[in-house]
Amino acid sequence: MTRWHASDDLVTRYTDGSLPEPDAWSLEKHLESCGSCAARVSRAVRATAAGAVVADVRTAVLGAAPAAPARAAAPTASPALTSKARLARLLWAAGPAVRGAWPPAVLLVAVGAIALAYGGGFAGARPLLLAIAPVVPVAGVALSYGAHADPLHEIAAATPSGGLRLVLTRTTAVLAVSLPLLTLTGLLLPASGAPGAAAWLLPGLALTLASLALASYVGCRIATAVIGGGWLCAVLAPPLADPGANLTARLAAQVSRCLDGASAQGGWAVAAGLCAALLVVRRPAYDRLEQR
Amino acid sequence: MSTIRVTGLRVRHRRTLALDGVDLAFGPGVHGLLGPNGAGKTSLIRVLATVAEPDGGRVEILGEDVADRGPRGRVRRHLGYLPQEFGYYPGFTVREFVAYVAWLKEMPAAGTDAAVERAVARVGLADRIDAKVRTLSGGMVRRVGIAQAIVNDPRVLLLDEPTAGLDPEQRVEFRELLRELGATTAVIVSTHLVEDVASACTEVTLLERGRVAYRGTPAALAALGASTGARGDSPLERGYTAALGAHRAPGEVTR
After folding, report:
1. What are the boundaries of each domain within chain A?
2. ipTM of the predicted structure?
3. pTM of structure
């Protein structure tokens, strides 16, 4: 795999510290993948003053942990295990919502909408999906972060990853699952007077960011309930309250009012931008979020 | 230099004052935090873990003021924290749980596997490392909690009631681990078991109603008990009741 090996001169200068830093870095990079050179360098280092210190530390560490398996010195894991580890890390980053009951719920919304449209012959499937879709990522956020959603919250909050960064990583995972899936579902549904399948993307993003911004004041659970509930009320309540014409048409009209046209979409874009800005300002609050 | 320095610390918990003007300094060693329920032990540990915000005073850890975001992030890399109560993801094995926390602590990926195995071995769970956490007993889960706290070889280790749920043999082993960790680390252990303090701690801090009632070595606390003839089943227990009594006596009127 490697094409070159460290010369004796290079090893000597590395061990006595006279090698220029870039060369030392290059050698260290090489040692990560070349067992024979690594063995030669460590033999050479063991002969120096630093070697004695390392030996002392090693004895102390091994003495302190007699039960520790002596695997630290063994070659690192196989490539298969590494890619498995990479996948594990991706799932860790995704957070509890994406590993838990939330993806099946998203899938249920998608499958349910298609079943309504083609199995049940319900004409209002797309408007209904567009009405519900923006709440889906908001629900994902609710299940991602905070003492109520994350059993490890108290431990995570004391780590450098805790706070806004962890929230944003998990939110990204939630959006990455829900945006394509629900937009694709919308495309498969008959239009029946409703806006395009992608019309909910900006509102979905804006409501998600609004939830995060509000959560910095009141916590994730209340924030997502207020934002998600508020949206559902705004879009579902008027058609339900109006006794006139058929419900499907009224729902489609209300969804169009909220989502269709340049001014509505522009409004959502501005809202998303404002919420993002507020979130940046509120960043410090996330370090101490949802404490008892 | 002290690893942790707390000055004038005030913490409100719900509507009561959990800590009221506490000044403390901790260096390397095992520091026992004793006190009746509600004395402020958990509040102090949570503030030191940087998860709770103080309402007043200053908290310096490793020479940095943790009220500021930047330093707080740096300090958190060197923290180990076992909360009094913690949960776990149902599907995780012991190895995954500890590795996940190592990832949260931003440990370099290359050394994580070895660090995880070492931490799990140190709490005596090497043979259960690939078992699901939910299949373990309460005492074992607590040891997993200790493993996640020490996985990054923290310079400040905060353990809230770590011996709760451990059987006597496990407690003995755990105290050995504490002594070992205390050689290089500032370990702060809250406990209501006076025996934990007697055998593992280099220093005792006794909290009562949000104030420091006593500080000293376990031996000095035991001597205090012997000299006053207070109630208790062991020298240290007598010292504990004596110190509490001495602290309460003048303050009883003002409350």
Report:
1. 8-64, 82-286
2. 0.91
3. 0.78
